[in-house]
Write a structure and sequence with these properties.
The chain has 15 helices and twelve strands. The chain is an alpha/beta fold and 381 residues long.
Length: 381
């Protein structure tokens, strides 16, 4: 998008409309990198592979696209200029690696589109999906706690030890570089406290960032964000920022998600993002996740329709092995056939009482006030 003017909300609205009303976000990048043999026991975490094995990052992005993901998130979550400098890199080299994280994702998208052109069917025999569709690249920005690499990103307790200006200065150059690297949007992820959300919102305005953003928060109790700050106040910050086009929850146990969606809906009219973890908790001493036994991946996938009915429209968090099933479940929640396809013809269709419930569930608040019988007038995309 460069320096062109844009209406931020239209970016996500257009994407969701062309995607049928909801979309699939990729899953854990780090998990899949480890499946390929990457050692991520490092303060840089998955960003370490930007230095050692960028080809693995590209392959994981491609794997997720072939499994059905509509949005891929870059490997920059824990990639900070300060973190790279601690490894002995210069500021210029650090900025180049941030750009590289976006370039790798863009390359994966281009390769995928070329494979779609070369493939004669949407679905390969091995389960891979080759269907040319709108795909977004989201440049990931992790919180200050992620840079600390001590588990603080899951507690957010540093909000009492740093200032708003400190956080803005910490994130400023990284946000500038990522915004100018060709990504479609910036994903501010796993935000654990109100102060950091304020820092992000102010940065977007102060730096006149020319691509939209989403804010996603983490929660440990299903009521507040991880630090204990009010979810209501955090979402209000996102709702008030014109450059934020979606808001939601990530890295949070699935059992909390339904209630959190309902809470978010009370504050914002923006699309709601949901990409939880599998219910695990982080052990800072072991630097590892403790995974519960009560939730299977099949259960996780089955939650999608419930979350969609509650009001979410962007879903992710599942591992690569389950993305195909996950994507199929998400697509079963999409708009009726009248809305599907590359272009939508002008249509006048009376929706009967039994159909309207499904339309409400899928389209959310846009149809909530319509009568039981209505006329849909869909405009060509």
């Amino acid at each position: 998008m460069g320096s062109q003017s844009f209406e931020p909300s239209s970016v996500m609205d257009d994407f969701l409309q062309k995607s049928g009303g909801c979309a699939v976000i990729d899953g854990g990048l780090a998990t899949e990198l480890e499946r390929y043999g990457a050692d991520l026991n490092d303060p840089l975490w998955s960003a370490k592979c930007l230095l050692s094995s960028p080809e693995l990052i590209r392959q994981v992005h491609l794997d997720y696209l072939e499994a059905g993901a509509d949005i891929i998130i870059t490997s920059s979550y824990q990639a900070t200029i300060q973190g790279f400098e601690a490894k002995g890199l210069s500021e210029e080299e650090s900025e180049a690696l941030l750009r590289k994280s976006v370039e790798i994702a863009l390359e994966a998208r281009n390769i995928y589109y070329q494979n779609c052109n070369d493939c004669t069917t949407d679905n390969a025999g091995d389960g891979k999906i080759f269907r040319k569709r709108p795909i977004l690249v989201a440049a990931s920005v992790g919180c200050y706690g992620a840079y600390l690499a001590d588990g603080a990103e899951y507690s957010g307790e540093y909000g009492h030890t740093v200032t708003l200006e400190f956080l803005k200065d910490f994130h400023r150059r990284r946000v500038q570089v990522l915004a100018g690297s060709g990504a479609d949007l910036i994903a501010f992820e796993t935000t654990p406290n109100k102060l950091e959300a304020q820092a992000y919102a102010q940065l977007l305005e102060e730096e006149d960032i020319t691509i939209p953003a989403w804010f996603s928060f983490s929660s440990k109790d299903g009521v507040n964000v991880s630090s204990g700050d009010s979810l209501f106040e955090c979402v209000t910050i996102a709702e008030s920022c014109k450059k934020v086009v979606a808001v939601g929850i990530n890295c949070t146990p699935p059992r909390f998600i339904h209630g959190l969606i309902l809470s978010i809906k009370k504050v914002t009219t923006k699309p709601i993002i949901i990409y939880p973890n599998s219910g695990e908790t982080y052990d800072a001493e072991r630097k590892d996740w403790i995974v519960p036994t009560e939730l299977s991946k099949e259960d996780f996938v089955s939650y999608v329709s419930k979350w969609h009915e509650a009001g979410a429209s962007l879903f992710g968090g599942i591992d690569k092995q389950r993305v195909h099933q996950f994507a199929a479940t998400v697509r079963s929640c999409k708009l009726p056939e009248v809305y599907k396809g590359k272009g939508i013809m002008y249509v006048d269709e009376v929706i009967k009482k039994e159909t309207r419930k499904k339309v409400q569930m899928i389209a959310g608040r846009r149809f909530n006030q319509l009568p039981l019988e209505l006329v849909i007038r869909s405009r060509s995309l």
